[in-house]
Amino acid sequence: MSLARELSGIKNIAVCAPKPKQVENLATALNITEEPKYTKTELLKYILTEDGYTVIQKALEDPNSELFTKNEFEPGASYYTVNIDPKYIRTVKDAPKVIFIDEITHFELAEIMALEAFASKYNVKLMTSGDTLQKGSTKVGFNIESAFTFKNPRLTISARTSRDTKKDNLTLLKDVLENC
To answer: Which residue did the predictor score with more confidence, 25 or 163?
Structure first.
C-alpha cells in the first residue's frame, strides 16, 4: 500500500513545502502531477488577500501587533491567540480538498492560524508533516508548537525504520482522507 495509490481517486489536492525543490519532491512522492503546487510564500499569497498577507508579515516582526492577544490564565503564565480577520482570507473558486504541507515547522503561529481560517472557510483538510523538534522558523517565537502539536506514537517513528511502521502511517493517512 502506498499513499500515492490511496490518493489516486481524490481530485484537487495541493502540496506545499518551503522551497521549490521540496515541493517537487513532495509532489513526486505523492504522484501528484497536475494539481496545485506551492512554496510556503505562494500558498500564503493564495489563501490571503494582499492586505492580509502584508498584515501577517508585519505582525511576525512585532510581538505587540494587534494581531496577537496575550491571555493570562494566572500570574506569569500566558498564551497568545491570533486574530485573523475574515476579510483577510481570499475568496477562491475551487479550493483544494486537501493541502499537504511538508516542513510545517517553517510556518509561524499567525500563518498557521490563517491556514486554519482558510481551511475552515472552504472545508479543506490540512495534512502536515515535519519534525516539531526542528525550528524551521522562529520569528517572534511563535511557531507551530505555540499553536498546536499532535503527537502520535506511530507517526513519531521514522517510516524508514520498518515496513510495519510505514504501513501504520499510511493506514492513518488513508483514514483521514476517506472523507475527502
So the answer is: 25
